Amino acid sequence: MRRPAVLTGITVLSTLTLAACTGGAGITSDKGGAGSSPTPATGGTVRILADADFSHLDPGLGWDGGVNNFYRLIYRGLTTVGAGPGAEGTKIVPDLATDTGTPSDNAKTWTYHLKDGLAFEDGTPIDSAAVKFGIERAWDPEMGGSPYPKELIEAPADYKGPYQSDGLDSIETPDAKTVVFHLKKPFPDFPSALTMPNFTPFPKGTGAKHAFDTKPIASGPYKVASYDHGTSLKLVRNPQWKASTDKVRAAKPDAFEWTFGLDGATIDERLLAGQGTDVDAIAGNAGTIQPATLSRIQTPQLKARTMSGYAGCTTYMGMNTTRGHLSDPRVRKAIAYAIDKNTVVAALGGSRLAAKATAIQPPTIRGRTDYDLYPHSEDKARKLLAEAGVSGGFTLTLDNRPDPKNTAVAVAIQEALKPLNIKVKINTIDTSSYYEVIGTTAKQHDLAVTGWCPDWASGSTFLPPLFDGRRITPTANTNLAQLDNEAINKRIDEIAAMKDVDAANKAYGALDKQIMAEAPIIPLAYEKALLIPGANIAGAYLSASFSGGIDLVSVGLKDSGK
Fold first, then answer.
1. Is the pTM of this model over 0.90?
2. 214-248 as b/e, with b when 16 or more CB fall inside 10 Å?
């Protein structure tokens, strides 16, 4: 799912259920551990200081890294991602279900069995009918959220969800504890898709007309006690939740309280000062500190609290392969060689906040291949432009957003191409409409700075959306390069048909390099989350599943009596 992975003041994600790369956890702490004491005490209130409210409390509508993290406190699904630093926090594990599912019919049919003793906050049992109903909500015309229910599960073309239509025959409930899914095609990674928020169960007949945006029905360890949109949110314990049914959520605090509407500098100042209840606080969303704060975290006390790691997204520049000189791969490769990614990293705040990107997929993706086809070289760039017959120069238009980070990145690109006689005109588009504009093929210019975050730890949610030529659409287009390469399309189909998910991820790693041989985009940077939790915070670790932010299901307080 495309996210403004760069240039928003905080690193967000993406959705994203991400994973550690092969051979490494991807997320690290500056002190070499989880960043706070490993075992929280029971009780107390964890406080979250946030710049903005959540997109939606209704999981049928929300779908981004920050809100997905929050959802796990109040909602449960058949599967979820594990709890723990590094790869542990990106494994697909059972949640309401007894296991991650049993495939049949070549992974086109999936069967799940529910655990005993499950109930919603009002005491209604969480049964197969609730699972079926909650998922059917994804077809309601007023819903949004992730596309996976509708992409994967068979449904009539005129189906409009459970509020307007009868139930789906493709989701069977032979008894109260069994759910059987019939998919449109084989999909071996279905347990990963089930971690998306709009697979959340609800009591049948509830939640119409966005009712859950103000009054959710909890299935997790916490429920909403109060909510003032844009200002504050408080969660308290859900007495119907049973720890014996849940191996993921530690649920140590008695409550969580959010304060919304704080600017980044204020959040940094409060967490560094650590006055009063701010010792019990963490930054909301991914919570990355402001670049201006970097120079202030050099004391031993603050260094001991600092946590950092990859946020799990790739910031890149798309090159529209259908336009002018960019239709020539030699020109695209020349531009790739010409851009000094160290200047991009500097524009993003330096090496503590970003690392230069070489592969398309970030280091947090399973099966990723590490390579660098286009190390910075003006000489190679000049030779390729000469071969293409365009040494005399030309002009390109770069679509971009107006915030300081984005502007700095655009200027770095502009300056890198000047010595090659390539003039870059920066076309500034308002942030609120940016993705709508660059996703409209008729409005897209030559270049665009953007970012992508996967929905879970697989190339399947990274490479096909960006490079499958059959996915190019007039609007809401995600293939910004407009690359339609027969060999790449064919390989995408071949990998999608693989029954072994690990083998498929490895194949996507190889496909990553195959795609970059065409240079349709330029990976610029992998941004990092850099956080300083309050001094009384315990059990905190950074999770690649949630934009590199602190995994809320494990966090708590060292001393709950403070």
1. no
2. eebbbbbbbbbeebeeeeebebbbbebbeeebbeb
On the 0-12 / 13-18 / 19+ scale of CB atoms within 10 A, 319 is buried
Which DSSP category does 119 fall into?
A: B
Same fold, 27-90+213-309+529-557 and 314-527: no
Cα-to-chain-centroid distance, residue 552 = 15
Q: Which fold has domain 314-527?
A: Dipeptide-binding Protein; domain 3 (3.10.105)
How does 513-542 read in b/e, with b if 16+ C-beta sit within 10 Å?
Answer: eebbebbbbbbbbbbbbbbbbbbbbbbbbb
Superfamily of domain 27-90+213-309+529-557: Periplasmic binding protein-like II (3.40.190.10)
The dihedral formed by the CA atoms of 340, 343, 349 and 355, expressed in degrees to the nearest 10: 20
Residue pair 327/390 in contact by the 8 Å Cβ criterion? no
Q: What is the pLDDT of residues 436-449, one digit of tens each?
A: 999 999 999 999 99
Pairing outcome for strands 394-400 and 422-428: parallel
Strand partners for 247: none
pLDDT at 498: 94
As a whole number of angstroms, the distance between CA 435 and CA 479 comes to 12
Q: How many whole angstroms separate alpha carbon 334 and alpha carbon 417?
A: 10
Cα-atom radius of gyration of the chain, to the nearest Å?
23
Q: Return the closest-CA partner of residue 86 out of 138, 24, 139.
A: 24
* Res. 14: pLDDT tops 80: no
State pLDDT tens for residues 265-299: 999 999 999 999 999 999 997 678 888 899 899 89
**301 Cβ contact partners less than 8 Å away, ≥ 6 residues apart:** none
